[in-house]
Design brief:
14% helix, 436 residues, nine-stranded mixed β-sheet
Length: 436
Amino acid sequence: MTKKLVTIAIALGVLCPFVRAADEDGWIELFDGTLKNWQRTENMNTWSVNDDGLLVTHGQRSHLFYTGPVENADFKNFELKVEVKTEKGSNSGIYFHTKVQQSDWPAQGYEVQVNNTHSDNKKTGGLYAVSDVLNNSPAKDGEWFTEHIIVQGSRIIIKVDGKTTVDWTEPPGYKHPQFAGRKLSSGTFALQGHDPGSIVYYRSIKVKPLAPRKTGTLKVAVLTGGHDFERKPFFEMFNSFKDAKCTEVQLKDHSEIFEDLDNWDYDVVVMYNMTQNISKKRQDNFKALLDRGIGFVAWHHNMGAFNEWAEFKKIAGGKYYLKPTKEGDKEVRGSTYKHDLDMAMKIADKSHPITKGLNDFTIHDEGYKYCGFEKDNHILLTTDHADSDRTIAWTRQYGRSRVCGIMLGHDGKAFANPNFRKLLSQAMNWTAWRSK
């Protein structure tokens, strides 16, 4: 398609669906045949769109940063597919988790190399200066090829035309010996214009945001099992959360949702289950989700889940002891519960996004007492009721995930309480990184 036809198509709205919406597989095209939603820096004439609607880089060093609306140009977990063609001796690159920088090479984020025959021995498909493809490029000049970049948690996979060239996991506390900003965080994408001797063409740049997504419908897995509950008001409450798609996962084998993560597509997991068994594999998979940054809300019955897994208390921040327990060198008594309490709730942190817009309130609910709580919890909600522990709601971080614990929420009276609904809804959004 020529540049003129691209312009006409945009005016008619033909190309808009590729910019504004994902296709059936969740891919969103970021390049519409113009430089709209892209910012050039330094030597701006290095970047142009030719008569065939191709993005061309040819000139002095310059970078082209995505600044459009998709994910607010702030990507964390994603797949990116870029269609590229190089001429002989050309060099370019694809940055991710970076930010707009007016000059020099981007200081933040990782670079994926685009170089088939340039003198630099770091070739196409490598994670530059981290996990390089040396000397022999998997692609050829003069032919279109696709670089496919997958970032999920601490793992980076790069493929060239479907063949894996890099599968690298960033170690905890990683520090690059040369580039301080070369580490996983979140950010936008940038294409590199290298030098006047390089001519590189791009014709498609499409992304698939992976959970947790920062925009769009919030996808929530609601885990149940191990304890009865009032289903009708429970789902009436979740159906009232208009910007969230909440899917019940009834656990039949205690924790089977964590057996295989290949098709995981949830931004948040809300645990209302009180199931107990979780294998080492499932424990590791759950912690892998937390390393991705998946939101976690540990809610009511869940305080009594996985009682034999000691690490779960550190993850959730609170535990209902089903029986007297030895924790380290300390003997802990069993926790207690009492139904039908009218409890006065006090907002401990009114500035937090989870408690935003809430004032002190009273709720008819069940109280737990003699539970265990992690000392580094950030307390949001408390009560002075004699049949309940003081701590009612809290936040913490585990891995890259935000965690919120909520003791409240036993039955239909609690589910119908507008203060509780607001608390739970805002907890889901905060753990999904949709509020600061």
